[in-house]
Structure formats: structure tokens, C-alpha cells
Specification:
InterPro entries: HPF/YfiA_ribosome-assoc, RHF-like, RHF/RaiA. This is Ribosome hibernation promoting factor. Keywords: Translation regulation. This protein is α+β, with helices and mostly antiparallel strands. The protein has 3 helices and 4 strands; from the N terminus they run βαβββαα. It has a 4-stranded mixed sheet, with helices on one face. A hairpin with a 2-residue loop joins strand 3 and strand 4. Helix 1 runs parallel beside helix 2.
Length: 119
């Protein structure tokens, strides 16, 4: 997996780089077929201080690119929100790749019964 972390209007410090890498480790635990990850951290020069810090991430997996972007007034909070969103997107992609049989099997093993409706 190739990981690229870049900054726009800010310098990516080693502590910020390690923080982003630690947050992205969670995604790799759930899904190991990631080819390429690009993270872009930006600070927009807006007059209001609200949500100036943005974090965007493009994850290239087999056959598709997944893109997530968040914004917050604190860059570390934006990275946290980015990791949460990216985790949900990757899990949804993984579920879609496994197909409807895996979903039905998971529902059946959860204690609920599947009911076939004819109509």
C-alpha cells in the first residue's frame, strides 16, 4: 500500500503525519485490499474561523476509488472525522463486494429470521 500525506497552505509535521497514519491503521485492519491512499490536509483562508481545516482522503481499492472529505475548526478533529467516515465507506464497500448472500447469511446468524414474501 502506498500512503501519501500532503498539505495545502500548511506544513505536514512529523507528529501530524504519525497521527494520520495511526488513524488510517483502523481502515487497514478492516480491509486489506487497499492499493493506494492519498490524504490532503488543507487550511482555507476564510474570514470566519468556522471549519477552516479540511481533510480529504482518496482510497484506491480494486476497481474503484473511494473519496471522503471532512472539515472542522481543528485539524486533528477533522482527521478523526475523516477516519470515522472512511471506516464506514470501506465497510460498506466490503459488504457490497461480498454480495447479497453474505449479508443474508449474517442476518440469519444474528438470531433474526428471514421471511420470504411472494407477491
Amino acid at each position: 500500500m502506498n500512503l501519501t500525506i500532503s498539505g495545502h497552505h500548511l506544513e505536514v509535521t512529523p507528529s501530524l503525519r504519525s497521527y494520520v497514519m495511526a488513524k488510517l491503521e483502523r481502515i487497514l485492519r478492516h480491509f486489506d485490499q487497499v492499493v493506494d491512499v492519498k490524504v490532503l490536509l488543507t487550511v482555507h483562508k476564510q474570514k470566519e474561523k468556522d471549519k477552516r481545516q479540511r481533510a480529504g482522503c482518496t482510497v484506491r481499492v480494486k476497481g474503484q476509488d473511494l473519496f471522503v472529505e471532512t472539515q472542522h475548526f481543528d485539524l486533528y478533529a477533522a482527521v478523526d472525522a475523516l477516519a470515522d467516515k472512511l471506516d464506514r465507506v470501506v465497510m460498506r464497500y466490503k459488504t457490497r463486494q461480498q454480495g447479497p448472500r453474505a449479508t443474508a447469511k449474517r442476518l440469519d446468524s444474528g438470531g433474526s429470521q428471514l421471511v420470504q414474501v411472494s407477491g
